[in-house]
């Protein structure tokens, strides 16, 4: 590849020679790709804000209720006992991301990542509106504190703080649900100081990220960005500079690149795409639009910077499928099919029966009794009348009625005594089996031990 200088590799682009922050004043992007991204981002923003309010059979579309170990993902309910199924789902998701990245590069970063969407489509747009484009902002930042500057900075940061608070509250709804959130904000602050302080801290964090830290999340912090080196290959499609067409650059060369550096001025991470694939490139497409404008002015064909693979630029290889992404697809298909199978065939209730810790057995005249703790999780969307019976022995269960009704997605926890006649106890540890019935239909069995003399 024709690179003029390689010193861009010496240090992160947003640090100066002394290691201090070099602020990126990105030019306001515009063009075909930016319009497409803007429309897509509105759908994503709608999804972020609307997901906790969308209901499927009365349940939120997404709920990550960590406190109660209950997760709802697109209407499917997962409990702590479903860790295996959740792990399969996570594994499928990671594999999907890998497959997607191998084939289409950092499409996620440029189009769907919340960091990019909020920074480029919300915070940066407000900044452009209040402080102007890159030159005006640079001038404002380097000017003395006049009334105009104080007004603009106060207005901008005031709006940033309000948006950060709104983001935190939306984020909170993903974890406690919209009803839980309404309950939280309508109850007096003094009843929930810890929640209130967490909300303020998270808001302060968002405000700091989107006001000051900005693109450094992508270039220095995000682990996904760091993985690009091992995921991308020469056939991966990404935002690429066609150096065969562009070089030698500049007025004296005869390549299509005029060396106007407009692609750099518009880049939100401040890099030069002409240096080739760099982990700082979030594939935001801003340089495609900007370079196309220059090509239009110079009367050249658009697409000097475009979505393309290295292989397609060097040798015209345009096939998307190769051995690597075929292999990933196969593994993904197997794991995802297994996930769907385990999800569809999982029991509708999850029962745990354990002997109460620290208690042995009680000796009665004709029977021996053990104390058990029982926990039943209803994974269905229906209320379930349940009944517990001992099916392995001729025993007797004593619980406050041994009939129970569990609300949809509810949990039942209790303690009961199991009596087994002495003549049925053959050793000091006997395996017993319980049956859980609903409307006289056996729906689950559970084995545990019964201790005796
Ligand atoms: S915008 Fe296009 S023509 Fe201008 S420097 Fe970048 S690649 Fe070259
Ligand atoms: S190089 Fe182009 S696609 Fe990559 S981050 Fe910069 S402007 Fe966006």
UniProtKB/TrEMBL annotation:
InterPro entries: 4Fe4S_Fe-S-bd, 4Fe4S_Fe_S_CS, Cyt_c_oxidase_cbb3_FixG, Electron_Trans/Redox, FixG_C, Ig-like_fold
PROSITE patterns: 4FE4S_FER_1 (PS00198), 4FE4S_FER_2 (PS51379)
KW Nucleotide-binding (keyword) present: no
GO cellular component terms, semicolon-separated: plasma membrane
Keywords per UniProt: 4Fe-4S, Electron transport, Iron, Iron-sulfur, Membrane, Metal-binding, Transmembrane, Transmembrane helix, Transport
4Fe-4S ferredoxin-type domain: residues covered: 246-276
Membrane-traversing stretches: 34-54, 85-109, 159-177, 193-210, 327-344
One example GO MF annotation: metal ion binding
NCBIfam families in the record: ccoG_rdxA_fixG
Name of the protein described by the UniProt record: Cytochrome c oxidase accessory protein CcoG
Lineage, highest ranks first: Bacteria, Pseudomonadati, Bacteroidota, Bacteroidia, Marinilabiliales
């Amino acid at each position: 590849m024709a690179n003029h200088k390689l010193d861009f590799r010496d240090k992160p682009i947003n640090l100066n020679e002394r290691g201090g922050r070099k602020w990126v004043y990105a030019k306001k992007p515009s063009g075909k790709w930016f319009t497409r991204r803007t429309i897509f981002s509105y759908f994503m923003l709608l999804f972020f804000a609307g997901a906790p309010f969308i209901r499927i059979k009365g349940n939120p579309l997404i709920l990550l209720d960590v406190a109660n170990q209950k997760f709802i993902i697109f209407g499917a309910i997962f409990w702590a006992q479903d860790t295996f199924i959740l792990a399969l789902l996570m594994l499928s998701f990671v594999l999907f991301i890998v497959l997607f990245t191998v084939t289409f590069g950092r499409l996620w970063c440029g189009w769907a990542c919340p960091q990019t969407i909020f920074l480029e489509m919300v915070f940066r747009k407000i900044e452009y509106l209040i402080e102007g484009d890159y030159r005006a902002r640079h001038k404002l930042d380097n000017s003395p504190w006049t009334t105009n500057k104080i007004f603009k900075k106060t207005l901008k940061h005031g709006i940033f703080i309000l948006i950060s608070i709104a983001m935190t509250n939306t984020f909170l709804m993903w974890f406690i649900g919209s009803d839980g959130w309404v309950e939280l904000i309508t109850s007096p602050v003094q009843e929930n100081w810890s929640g209130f302080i967490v909300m303020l801290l998270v808001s302060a964090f968002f405000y700091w990220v989107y006001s000051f830290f900005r693109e450094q999340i992508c270039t220095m912090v995000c682990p996904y960005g760091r993985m690009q080196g091992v995921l991308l290959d020469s056939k991966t499609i990404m935002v690429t500079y066609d150096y065969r067409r562009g070089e030698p650059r500049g007025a004296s060369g005869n390549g299509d690149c005029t060396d106007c550096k407009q692609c750099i001025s518009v880049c939100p991470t401040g890099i030069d795409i002409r240096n080739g694939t760099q982990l700082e490139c979030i594939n935001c497409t801003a340089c495609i639009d900007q370079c196309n404008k220059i090509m239009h002015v110079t009367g050249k064909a658009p697409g000097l910077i475009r979505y393309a693979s290295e292989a397609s630029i060097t040798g015209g290889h345009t096939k998307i499928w190769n051995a690597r992404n075929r292999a990933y697809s196969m593994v993904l298909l197997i794991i995802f099919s297994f996930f769907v199978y385990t999800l569809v065939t999982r029991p509708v209730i999850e029962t745990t029966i354990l002997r109460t810790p620290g208690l042995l057995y009680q000796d009665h005249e004709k029977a021996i009794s053990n104390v058990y703790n029982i926990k039943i999780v209803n994974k269905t969307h229906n209320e379930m009348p349940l009944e517990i019976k001992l099916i392995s022995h001729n025993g007797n269960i004593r619980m406050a009625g041994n009939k129970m009704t569990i609300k949809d997605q509810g949990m039942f926890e209790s303690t009961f005594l199991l009596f087994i006649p002495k003549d049925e106890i053959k050793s000091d540890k006997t395996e017993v089996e319980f049956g859980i019935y609903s409307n006289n239909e056996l729906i689950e069995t559970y084995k545990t031990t019964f201790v005796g003399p």
